[in-house]
Design a protein that fits this description.
10 strands; mainly beta; elongated; 149 residues; 58% strand; six-stranded antiparallel sheet
């Protein structure tokens, strides 16, 4: 494929500035969204994201995340581009660097597509505490990039 034919889209504008830690119920939030994009049958879409969260919690918190393709910037459900992953931020870590990526082969031409990076935080030790999104509205530490080949 001709690299000049590739299209690159991205954002470093966070949609939320903090994340409340829950216990039993996953409170899903879109941190980054890119779109609307037109996709053609046979396109290969490479999606990459990085974000940084910080915690003052005195225990462990699990941070889950996944990438979806959907029809709106605020939706947390849609076609998963890659399975969800979860990692812990501990009192010793203070910061969590979240890196996630996925590749999708487009099977049908479609319009008005959004790629959303969805996150959530859960803990039995830190329920109701807040994780801060680092760099919020300051061209900070994170971004979502979508490359269409």
């Amino acid at each position: 494929m001709n690299a000049a034919a590739a299209e690159l889209y991205g954002t470093d504008k966070e949609l939320i500035n903090s994340l409340v830690i829950t216990n039993n119920v996953r409170a899903l939030h879109v941190l980054y969204s890119v779109g609307p994009l037109s996709l053609n049958k046979g396109d290969i879409v490479d999606v990459r994201v990085q974000a940084v969260l910080s915690s003052e919690c005195k225990g462990n918190s699990g941070i889950g995340r996944y990438i979806i393709r959907t029809k709106d910037t605020s939706l947390t459900r849609g076609k998963r581009i890659i399975k969800a992953v979860m990692s812990n931020i501990t009192v010793n870590d203070h910061h969590a660097v979240l890196v996630h990526s996925g590749i999708e082969l487009i099977e049908n031409t479609s319009e008005n597509n959004f790629y959303n990076f969805v996150i959530y935080a859960q803990s039995t030790q830190c329920e109701e505490e807040i994780l801060q999104v680092e760099g919020y509205s300051d061209d900070g530490f994170g971004e979502l990039v979508v490359l269409i080949h």
